[in-house]
Design a protein that fits this description.
Elements: H1 15-27, H2 34-48, H3 51-62, H4 72-82, E1 85-86, E2 101-102, H5 107-121
Antiparallel strand pairs: 1-2
């Protein structure tokens, strides 16, 4: 089973694996409706706690710093990874949240993994 399967509990994945899985989803050339694009980027923005981190995540995964530049297939890959879900459809493993839309609990650690990988990719040194 793919760790990108919706509603499947998962452990945080390393950056290289997330990037590879996103590339697999991009290769499938699926599309994502615009309302799901807005939901996906909104949840990613909330978990990233700001635009700079979100832009770095996009740059690492797709080589683009703006979600406006994403192709339909890249949007689908981003959605499959973030997989925002509505509070009404929350499975048992979801934490208690006050927001209507939220992501899998592993997403925050995965974003940290991606940001670390992006810094290394740019030649920065990991301090700890």
């Amino acid at each position: 089973m793919s760790y990108l399967t919706p509603f499947a509990p998962r452990e945080p994945q390393p950056a290289a694996r997330i990037k590879a899985r996103c590339a697999e989803f991009v290769a499938k050339h699926r599309t994502l409706p615009e309302n799901w694009q807005a939901t996906t980027i909104g949840v990613l923005q909330a978990v990233c706690e700001g635009g700079e981190a979100r832009h770095s995540v996009l740059a690492y995964l797709f080589g683009k710093t703006s979600s406006k530049a994403l192709t339909q297939a890249e949007w689908f890959a981003l959605y499959a990874w973030v997989f925002p879900h509505h509070l009404d459809a929350c499975p048992a493993w979801c934490p208690n949240v006050t927001d209507t839309w939220h992501a899998h609990p592993a997403l925050k650690q995965e974003i940290k993994n991606l940001l670390d990988a992006r810094m290394l990719e740019q030649g920065q040194i990991r301090l700890f």
